[in-house]
Amino acid sequence: MNSLLVVGLGNPGEEYVNTRHNAGLDFVMMLSDEYGVSLKKEKLIKSSYAKFEINECSVILCIPDTFMNESGICVSKAKKFFNVENHEILIIHDDLDLDNGCIRLKDSGGHGGHNGLRNIIDHLSGDTSFKRIRIGIGHPGKENNVTSYVLNKPSASERSALENKMKNCLSLLENLIINGWEKTIMKLHSSEEKKDES
Prior knowledge:
Number of domains: 1
CATH class: Alpha Beta
Number of helices: 7
Shape: globular
CATH architecture: 3-Layer(aba) Sandwich
Largest sheet: 7 strands, mixed
Mean pLDDT: 94
Order of helices and strands: EHEEEHEEHEHHHH
Strand content: 15-25%
Number of strands: 7
Distance between the termini: 36 Å
């Protein structure tokens, strides 16, 4: 792998800080702290980004300046700007279908009702071959409550549990680059199974 564009989805602005929908954005910010890099704004890609290397792979952390529903604008522009292929794109996003703090990898597929992913697929001409890290935020139970649920902040205990799980999974990025997708999935899922058994 020569390059990896890592995009954390969320909404910009103070009012959306620490909301459930910003889990992907939060994960990328944690990665920037972990690797000691600062994101800078780039108008040409409507995003903030930072660039560094892991094992000779050029890693580009990216956070869109647009709202979630227009994430595809930034991803398509960043793809051209950094000259990466769709399979070299890793989207990190919140997921209602996973329990709070549950983190899973997915190597392709549809949008599953996620508007950010839907817009990205549209802007990539329907190509769904980009990779994802899914961050569980739980589900409110009723579909009518989904919008307010994702745009609100979780309780302090819920947020703390989510942050701890994300911090424990920051090594996923390096594992993906060094060990590859399949081995990293196996390692993640086996570690989760051990935790469940204990």
